[in-house]
Specification:
The chain is of the alpha/beta class. Helix 10 crosses helix 12. The chain binds 3'-phosphate-adenosine-5'-diphosphate (PAP). Belongs to the sulfotransferase 1 family.
Length: about 325
């Protein structure tokens, strides 16, 4: 993989106001308006950029795309994949600035396809990256070029999703933190309103069930090229996931590395505790949507646990969402 340190990228942001946003159905509620494009709710200010991806992103057969539903552990997956493929290039185990994961937020190290601003993910910069490329997206498969999923010559995809109640709670906290003034307790959206929209599928890159199902079915169709992961398994056994991921990426840990603990060091380096302690992740951040919102990197490291929904959702809410999940995933083989 040839991922050099990409400039700043974050999929939920861009300063431009979209022309398309004025023509397509749009809803307020989250920290920025959402626009429905091809059955997917996108941040309105990003619609034009994402519309361009399907026609103008040129997938290569040796690309690896880290695809995630938002708030599923993208930051973690990017850190792990970057550390794995670059373990012989950088001294990732060193304490000094030579370690990119110490100097930059992991979201910056693997560019989001088609996200302009700060250069890293706009389509020209992606096209200029040497092969093999390590890329990322929050887009559903239906908004990526068909060549990504071609039976022959399609890309390898690592998909990561998360138990929906935890994903919802993470989303709610994150959106509120993006609002300027949130330090004073101002909320972009109250929990009940956020929950109603989540259950309608109206969240960034939602409906979540369509997102999960598209990649789930693709993993059944092309099991050797699509690795389907859940946040919960990363939490339960990160070492197993790191080893599987390395093998999937074509750079398995050799016996000598395992006996020297290199795989364990990757797990440690990418852990919530280690990453959230780095200065850049404590104090760094970026403005987005023309300065209307601010993403502090610390907001990408909130709790990092499974089951935190119980501290925020009522039993009624949990039952309602569980029932929705059962209904939407019925017969698919995907369960939570
Ligand atoms: P994104 O959708 O903006 O790309 P993403 O990284 O997918 O963000 O999700 C953030 C969640 O992953 C947070 O969950 P929480 O709100 O429930 O706490 C964050 O804490 C969690 N996360 C980020 N990095 C790690 C990590 N290294 N280990 C475990 N969880 C992590």
């Amino acid at each position: 993989m040839n991922n050099v340190q990409a400039p700043e990228t974050k999929q939920e942001d861009s300063p431009e106001n979209s022309m398309a946003a004025t023509l397509l159905p749009t809803r307020e509620g989250w920290s920025t308006p959402l626009t429905l494009y091809n059955n997917c709710w996108l941040r309105s200010h990003m619609v034009d950029s994402f519309m361009a991806v399907r026609d103008n992103f040129k997938p290569r057969h040796d690309d690896v795309i880290l695809a995630t539903h938002p708030k599923s552990g993208t930051t973690w997956l990017k850190a792990m994949a970057f550390a794995i493929v670059n373990r012989s290039r950088y001294d990732l185990l060193a304490d000094g600035d030579g370690n990119p994961l110490r100097a930059q937020n992991p979201q910056r190290l693997v560019p989001f396809i088609g996200v302009p601003g700060h250069g890293g993910g706009d389509l020209a910069a992606i096209e200029a990256m040497p092969s093999p490329r390590l890329l990322a997206t929050h887009l559903p498969l239906s908004l990526l070029p068909p060549a990504v999923t071609a039976a022959t010559g399609g890309c390898r995809v690592v998909y990561l999703c998360r138990e929906p109640k935890d994903s919802f709670v993470s989303r709610w906290h994150f959106d509120n933190k993006m609002v300027k003034g949130s330090q004073t307790g101002a909320h972009a959206i109250e929990l009940d309103a956020a929950f109603a929209m989540f259950c309608e599928g109206c969240t960034p890159f939602g409906p979540f069930w369509e997102h999960y199902l598209q990649y789930w079915r693709e993993s059944l169709r092309r099991p050797r090229e699509v690795l389907f992961l859940r946040y919960e398994e990363l939490v339960a056994d990160p070492l197993r996931v790191v080893r599987d991921l390395a093998a999937f990426l074509g750079v398995p840990f050799i016996d000598e590395e395992e006996s020297n603990g290199v795989d364990r060091e990757v797990v440690r380096l990418c852990s919530f505790e280690t990453l959230s302690g780095f200065d850049v992740n404590k104090n760094g951040g970026v403005e987005r949507a023309g300065g209307k919102i601010f993403i502090g990197y610390s907001s990408l490291f909130r709790r990092g646990k499974t089951g935190d929904w119980v501290n925020h959702m009522s039993a009624d809410m949990a039952e309602k969402l569980d029932a929705l999940v059962r209904e939407k995933f019925k017969g698919s083989g995907l369960e939570f």
